[in-house]
Specification:
It holds the Pfam family DUF134. InterPro entries: RNA_pol_sigma_r3/r4-like (IPR013324), UPF0251 (IPR002852), WH-like_DNA-bd_sf (IPR036388). By secondary structure, the chain is α/β, with parallel strands linked by helices. It has two domains: 8-94, Arc Repressor Mutant, subunit A; 97-135. It has helices spanning 36-47, 52-59, 63-83; strands spanning 8-9, 18-19, 31-34, 86-89, 94-95, 98-103, 109-113, 129-131. It is globular, with a radius of gyration of 18 Å. The N and C termini lie far apart (48 Å).
Length: 151
């Protein structure tokens, strides 16, 4: 029986998560799903220029697991580019130390790094903030599920 998959640490979430070849209607194109951790692996290796060991450490996986993730990502991108397929970035088995918080006082939604930032609303200074679960980013890393929820 295989071990359960370990969560991969991800620090970047793209604003645009769907890409379609120019001039082709979305409804007529096959799509390749690129997992969030696969995009993160390519970002760390190809954009941040980190070596494999540094990438694996940042994602909190072994070097072999990192290599498997990036190999899968590059193959998917190559197939999409050469065969004219759409790329959808979603899903995967990842976690993050960024949490989306919502201020109960003014309604502002913002991201914090729970390791470094305090759970205080940047707009109004209120400490009445809570983790915004519907953002889907907190997974098991969020330490502030109902942080400073003083009524």
């Amino acid at each position: 029986m295989a071990r359960p998959t370990k969560f991969r640490r991800v620090e970047f979430f793209p604003e645009n998560n769907y890409f379609v070849p120019w001039g082709k209607p979305k409804c007529e194109i096959e799509e390749i799903v690129l997992k969030v951790e696969e995009l993160e692996a390519m970002r760390l290796k190809d954009i941040e220029d980190l070596n494999q060991e540094e990438c694996a450490e940042k994602m909190q996986v072994s070097r072999q697991t990192f290599q498997n993730i990036i190999d899968s990502a590059r193959k998917k991108i190559a197939i999409a580019l050469t065969e004219g397929k759409a790329i959808s970035i979603s899903g995967g088995h990842y976690t993050t130390k960024l949490c989306k918080f919502r201020c109960l006082q003014c309604g502002t939604t913002y991201e914090i790094n729970y390791d470094q930032d305090r759970a205080i609303c940047p707009s109004c200074g209120s400490e009445k903030v809570m983790c915004s679960k519907k953002a889907g980013f907190c997974k098991n890393w969020c330490k502030g599920n109902n942080t400073n929820l003083n009524t």
